[in-house]
Amino acid sequence: MLVRERQEVQEVPRSGGIASPGRPWSVVGALTTGALLAAVFPRWDQGWLAWVSLVPLLLVVRHAGPGTAFWLGCLSGLVAYGGLMEWIRLFGTPAWLALTVIMSMFLGMFAAAAAALAARYQARRSGAWLWVIPLTWAAVEYARSTGPLGFPWGLLGLTQYRSPVVLSLAPLVGTGGIGAVIALVNAAIAEVIASPRRRAAPVALLGVLAALAGAHRLAVPPASSSRVVGAIQPNVPPETKGMPETSAAILEGLLRQTREARRAGAQIIVFPETALPADAATSPAARLAVARAAGGAVVVAGAFLPGPLNGVLVIGQDGATLGRYAKRRLVPFGEAGVRPGRDAGPVQTPEGAIALAICYESAFSPLIRPQVADGAALIAVLTNDGWFGTSAGPAQHAAHAVLRAAETGRSVVRAANTGTSMLIRPDGGVTAVQPLGTAGVLVGALPTGGPVSFYVRWGWMLPPLAAAAWLIASLPLAWQAVRRRLADSVRLLISVLAPAAVLAADRLLAGRDDGPGVVASCAVLALCAALARRDLLDWRRMGASVMLSVGLTVVLLAAMRGAYARYGFVVPLGPSGGGWLPWLAPHLLKGFAVEAWLRGATFSPAMRLGGWPLAIAVSTVLGVFLHAGQSQEIVFWHLVTGAGFGAIRLWTRDAMGLGPARGVGDAVVMGLAGLR
């Protein structure tokens, strides 16, 4: 018993375990930042507050430990992103809560990193900490926006979509760069308040003002040509779009609006996402009818294509198909039954090359920037935001299109089923808007073509450079930690690499996660875990571990099913054929083995090396990498359950009790693969 208690004490980090949020004034500061961040986005849309929104949080984390700062940042994030993503409740409260918690953890990581670096750089009194803040912010936003689970919603730079002065920075540094500039200003204001005698902060503020004043001189030259473009907004309820009995009326309405746009002089006419009924999209007669209504104009029509694909048909004269495009970035838990597209190039038309983005894709600059670099003269965004009703979701989504125009120096035509449709100039200025919840046609002349922006050519380098600069700034702290705990560092490295090699070999040989080879690989995996760390379970708390993990799994599965149900899909909860035991046994076996590794072998040395944040982070990231290359839903599942199971393991000190929930949950979620 004495040995066991000594082992438990060793797992408590030197900072005192899970740090509390701190003094009441620290909590007030974190809550204030959360409220300000919620207010800078639609629905409140007070973008000017972004320039001071981080100040309260930065003031309270300057002298806090990383653990305390993490919780303060998470507290800010719960308020900020809970308000920002309030419209997600349309897809179920569990989905809203899960997304809010995940996004808040990124703000927590920013606060923890800022606090960790503060101790090193503030002591030098050189103002270096001032410059670490924007690098940290840019690195965290880059991490949140990248990879299969990237979600670039609520980026700080998006708050300036109505500011022509700030948008002049977008062709140079993009949305992420604007966010970093805003973070720098916040850091400078916090520095002035906390250390008014230091000169670095005023110099930084003057530098930002000079950059804003001179940015327009380096902006993309105006285009030499223009096209008259039209955006169709039919305002069809999304629930009725797929009904066979409504297809004829929907198509007739589109044809009527197309004729109206052509009479107004439109040379390019853009339909919303999936505007054409399914039978019309594959019908030559329907395409010919669209071409005749367009009277020679190019029609960019959203439609479901064979595959099935959420795609675009570009229709020319006589109904000829000038090109096709399929949505590459599908909405997690929202587009079951649809496969992602692969073609990434712009579509060539008689009116110039057109870059295409469907709905959610407009939030991802890396999907659009290469199309402009390949010669696109215009950007067309097709979307259907009707699922979001009159919430703040459509307005938040529309802001991305403004930044895509300003970043690339290309005009954007945004056609939305229920709104908001827009015509946007290359500088981000909005020239026409069709309000939410109305039907109508927007027609206007927009500049096309011209030189591409610096961001189009070199923007892909900026986020990785910011992340690399932050890592360089953090290396001294990391090296000090490794030197102090060299034995734990080596032990963690071995516990990570040895089982990972076994699983990688199994993936390469068997090619699947539930094949016969899983038995042998899991046996070796469990053995590696047992050799690396023997105290994998605590009989006294195993019951709590089982109940908590099962409860979390049930809640998350309910959230998934609710999100899919919103779109009319049902997630299977059992085997499609055969018995339960052959279906479930491999997943249970792997569940126990994986948890023995992730929350056992790797968790303990990571805990001693860097405390609970490192233990949860390492075990979660490894679980995500195990499923790299699979669907977004499966990767998302392992991210959320990994973090949740890590928290349960931290409290119960038991890893094996997590096995049943891991096995059963993974078995159910694997059914999602059949929905893609």
Shape: globular
Strand content: 5-15%
Q: Low-confidence segments, ≥5 residues, pLDDT <50?
A: 1-18, 513-517
Strand runs, count:
11
What does the main sheet amount to? 6 strands, mixed
**Termini distance?**
51 Å
> What is the count of DSSP helices, taking H or I runs of 4+ residues?
23
**What is Rg?**
26 Å
- Mean pLDDT, nearest integer? 84
What share of the residues lie within helices? 40-55%
Which class do the helix and strand fractions yield?
alpha/beta
Q: Largest beta sheet: what is the strand line-up? A: 5-4-3-2-1-11
What does this molecule look like?
- This protein is 55% helix and 10% strand.
- It is of the alpha/beta class and 676 residues long.
- Strand 6, helix 13 (365-373) and strand 7 (378-383) form a beta-alpha-beta unit.
- Helix 3 crosses helix 8, helix 8 packs antiparallel against helix 9 and helix 10 packs parallel to helix 12 (284-294).
- The chain is globular, with a radius of gyration of 26 Å.
Give the structure's gist in a few sentences.
This protein has about 675 residues and is of the alpha/beta class.
SSE diagram, text form:
Layout: H1 2-10, H2 24-39, H3 55-61, H4 66-84, H5 93-121, H6 128-145, H7 164-167, H8 170-194, H9 200-215, E1 225-233, H10 247-263, E2 268-270, H11 278-281, H12 284-294, E3 298-305, E4 309-315, E5 321-326, E6 354-358, H13 365-373, E7 378-383, H14 393-408, E8 412-416, E9 421-424, E10 430-434, E11 440-448, H15 454-458, H16 462-484, H17 486-510, H18 517-532, H19 542-566, H20 580-601, H21 603-625, H22 632-652, H23 659-669
Parallel strand pairs: 1-2, 2-3, 6-7, 7-8
Antiparallel strand pairs: 1-11, 3-4, 4-5, 8-9, 9-10
